[in-house]
Specification:
- By secondary structure, this protein is of the alpha+beta class.
- It folds into two domains: 98 residues; 161 residues, Phosphatidylinositol 3-kinase Catalytic Subunit, Chain A, Domain 5, CATH 1.10.1070.
- The protein is built from nine helices and 13 strands.
- A hairpin with a 6-residue loop joins strand 3 and strand 4.
- The chain is globular, with a radius of gyration of 19 Å.
Length: 269
Amino acid sequence: MKDIITELQDMRYLNWTKSRKSSGTAGSFLKAYDDSGAVKKYYKLSDYDRMQGIIGQECINEIIVQRLLRILKIEHLEYRLIHALIVVDDKEVETYLCESDDFKNPSESKMSFEDYYDLKKKEGQSPLEFCKEQGWADYIYKMLIIDYLVLNRDRHGANIEVLRSAKDKSVRLAPLFDHGLSLVCKCRNLEELKKFNVMEDKRVQAFIGSGSTLENLKLVPNEVKALLPRLSESDRDTIFEGLDGIMDKEYQDKIWEMTWKRWCSLDSI
């Protein structure tokens, strides 16, 4: 599937609403949906400021991270990065946005992992212990690996979802999604980017584990890390294909430095 559409699309029909912010990032995160077709589609913008317009790169990050997830063969929600003309605050804006399909089957309903855990946990049982009991350990371990590699700041309890089907009497975790607040998302200019330490263990939101992606990585058994496909330096071209003219080369260089150095550190942690 082509994951970047560079031809300008007229999407002024979308109705944008603010979503709950949990990261402390300035501005607003705007989301929209379209249920007029056979498959419901969801849309989101990068960080938006009423005065400055689109000031973030979260939508581009989704594409970068999903390409990394493909290489590592980790199940995830597929996003498309679309060059679009939209209307926000009664103003026409030309930008790149993210589109994704509804990941639920028709018979399924969704619930945040946090709510499901609160509903079903045993007394004193941690979220990780609960996941192991449910048979979800492999999913969680791979999630902790990717969150370390990209320094995901925002894996709160609603950024993991449980899908339940009364018809099939099944319960499963949704494919991994929402990796926008990762990589160098807090760097708003080249000066901040230059100072950014790609290996620093910054404080993050994580419902499973702790507020440290490094400490969370230590929860992952070595055999899980060993079974992952290997990332190679040649994968850089795949990860950034088509992003020239959309993301500055300096940002691409820093993101690759971050991803590669963190990858190379996996076996020693």
